[in-house]
């Protein structure tokens, strides 16, 4: 196989969404698997919606995900420029070629005229296809229209493909249907096999607008050819564009690249991925402490299933084992639960291998939620480190930091009403809290083992089970019924805060305070 070249062609009209990031990752994985190159192309042909901020955000998000590229607007390369807005001269050249070869003709129809045709088609209940009325305009008619101020768009002339010289090439196949011959454009897809589109269902589509700008299908073909792309791996939503692109390649005298149309991502209910399923911009995942290495692993397994059923693969292993021929047509399920699980696995490892990175991530998360200044002081940072140690593998994603540990960073815990009702109501809770205060007041050093020993001794003395002691204290200190180990969290909170919170909870248990 000639050196593989894939492309990542985002439009800078918004932040990179998971679906696009997933397709980008597949292009990267495939290229790296075959020792090939990745080209980043910015598809900014719509100046009203494109912005340099989004372009920068796309670089940042792709890099964060661990995707690099060999050529692109920011790194250059031999087949640039890599921004479509800077490639108008190349589209113009290709358009001239099409005209000279008689593959394209100027169309002077106004939007109103086209709309009229469209309405007629709708009234007759047939799909709209441009009538081709400008195909046979004479020079004189064209000049007359131009003199009247009309600027032509350029349309591809599909009637040219009826010429039998094309029909032996395989990609344009005549088929006999009901006694008549019908032509089909065949798209060879690495995932779907041959997909045939009836030529008569396509129309003479516009390749260059009347203002001179190139349309997606045309720019895409000129660029993929010009950038020597060998494999186009993209979302199946684009499959209906592909026959048009194939016609353009042939009209321009070029061989198309290989296509693989990736299935659409769906939620666990098998419906197209939406916000409800956790579809979001990639940076929202970053903000919620998803690790890029976990996302890469998750992305890879969304459409490709290694035979042995293993789930955790390093990126190097993915690159080594990735096999496009195993990617099926079935829509992969974007299973947020599985992602949480997988991220948890990676977090657990990271906690062992590089705890500083976890501390930085958690500190950043706390700052974004207003619970820590940014940047934290060295003391605050080492406090976060102790909290991270105590929370341990409870942190599977960012929200777990607050779910299990917000009380570490609040003056007073947020008391969950249910926790209060179940654990702080009643005379026994008050007795337990008072007992704990008494025992802990003079305890020195204030360490987890010493705290545990002291509370156990006191419980035994009062004929209480450890359960009866631990639960009210936990709610008093954290506001919740679940969380990290009680004695460890007490050590981290420190004696002063523990006593203060116990005192406050005593007044709740006594029914005296409604402020909690
Ligand atoms: N800019 C297009 C998109 O983001 C690229 C489509 C393609 O891969 O051809 O949808």
Task: Indicate the topology.
Layout: E1 5-8, H1 18-33, E2 37-40, H2 52-65, H3 88-100, E3 104-107, H4 111-123, H5 139-147, E4 153-156, E5 172-177, E6 180-189, E7 193-198, E8 206-208, H6 216-226, E9 231-235, H7 242-251, E10 258-262, H8 282-287, H9 292-300, H10 315-321, H11 336-353, H12 355-368, H13 378-391, H14 398-405, H15 417-423, H16 427-441, H17 448-461, H18 466-478, H19 486-493, H20 495-509
Parallel strand pairs: 1-2, 9-10
Antiparallel strand pairs: 3-4, 4-8, 5-6, 6-7
Helix pairs in contact: 1-10, 6-7, 9-11, 11-12, 12-13, 16-17, 16-18, 16-20, 17-19
Bound molecules: glutamic acid.
Biggest sheet strand line-up: 3-4-8
Molecular shape: elongated
Count of beta strands = 10
- The unreliable regions are 512-516
Bound small-molecule species: glutamic acid
**Alpha plus pi helix count:** 20
* Portion of residues within helices: 40-55%
Q: Provide the structure class.
A: mainly alpha
Count of separate structural domains = 4
Percent strand: 5-15%
Please state the second-level CATH architecture of the largest domain: Alpha-Beta Complex
CATH class of the largest domain: Alpha Beta
CATH topology of the largest domain: Glutamyl-tRNA Synthetase, domain 3
CATH superfamily of the largest domain: Glutamyl-tRNA Synthetase, Domain 3
- Major sheet description: 3 strands, antiparallel
User: SSE order, as H and E?
Assistant: EHEHHEHHEEEEEHEHEHHHHHHHHHHHHH
How much is the radius of gyration in Å? Answer: 32 Å
Could you tell me the mean pLDDT? 93
Q: Roughly how many Å apart are the termini?
A: 70 Å
């Amino acid at each position: 196989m000639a050196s593989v070249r894939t492309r990542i062609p985002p439009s800078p009209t918004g932040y990179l969404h998971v679906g696009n990031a997933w397709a980008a990752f597949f292009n990267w994985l495939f290229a790296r698997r075959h020792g090939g190159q990745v080209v980043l192309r910015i598809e900014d042909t719509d100046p009203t919606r494109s912005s340099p901020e989004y372009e920068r955000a796309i670089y940042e998000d792709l890099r964060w995900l661990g995707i690099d590229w060999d050529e692109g607007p920011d790194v250059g390369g031999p087949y640039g420029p890599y921004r479509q807005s800077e490639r108008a001269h190349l589209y113009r050249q290709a358009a001239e070629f099409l005209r000279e070869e008689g593959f394209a003709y100027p169309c002077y129809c106004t939007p109103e005229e086209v709309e009229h045709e469209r309405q007629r088609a709708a009234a007759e209940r047939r799909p709209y296809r441009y009538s081709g009325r400008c195909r046979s305009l004479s020079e004189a008619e064209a000049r007359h229209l131009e003199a009247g101020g009309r600027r032509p768009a350029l349309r591809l002339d599909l009637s040219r493909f009826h010429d039998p010289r094309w029909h032996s090439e395989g990609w344009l196949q005549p088929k006999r249907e009901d006694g008549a011959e019908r032509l089909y454009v065949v798209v060879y897809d690495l995932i779907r096999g041959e997909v045939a589109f009836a030529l008569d269902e396509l129309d003479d589509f516009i390749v260059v607008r009347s203002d001179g700008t190139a349309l997606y299908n045309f720019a895409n073909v000129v660029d993929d050819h010009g950038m020597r792309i060998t494999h186009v791996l993209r979302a199946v939503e684009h499959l209906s564009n592909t026959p048009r692109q194939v016609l353009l390649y042939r009209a321009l005298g070029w061989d198309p690249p290989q296509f693989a149309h990736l299935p659409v991502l769906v939620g666990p209910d098998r419906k197209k991925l939406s916000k409800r399923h956790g579809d979001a911009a990639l940076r929202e995942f970053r903000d919620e402490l998803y690790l890029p290495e976990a996302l890469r692993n998750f992305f890879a397994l969304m459409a490709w299933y290694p035979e042995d059923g293993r789930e955790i693969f390093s990126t190097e292993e993915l690159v080594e084992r990735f096999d496009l021929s195993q990617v099926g047509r079935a829509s992969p399920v974007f299973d947020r639960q599985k992602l949480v699980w997988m991220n948890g696995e990676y977090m657990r490892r990271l906690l062992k291998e590089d705890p500083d990175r976890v501390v930085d991530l958690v500190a950043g998360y706390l700052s974004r939620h207003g619970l820590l200044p940014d940047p934290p002081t060295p003391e605050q940072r080492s406090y976060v480190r102790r909290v991270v140690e105590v929370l341990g593998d409870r942190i599977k994603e960012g929200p777990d930091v607050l779910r299990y540990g917000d009380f570490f960073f609040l003056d007073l815990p947020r008391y969950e009403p249910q926790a209060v009702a179940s654990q702080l109501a009643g005379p026994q809770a008050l007795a337990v809290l008072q007992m704990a205060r008494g025992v802990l007041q003079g305890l020195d050093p204030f360490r987890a083992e010493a705290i545990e020993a002291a509370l156990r001794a006191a419980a035994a003395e009062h004929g209480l089970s450890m359960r009866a002691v631990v639960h009210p204290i936990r709610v008093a200190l954290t506001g919740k019924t679940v969380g990290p180990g009680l004695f460890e969290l007490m050590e981290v909170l420190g004696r002063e805060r523990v006593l203060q919170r116990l005192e406050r909870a005593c007044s709740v248990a006594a029914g005296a305070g409604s402020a909690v």
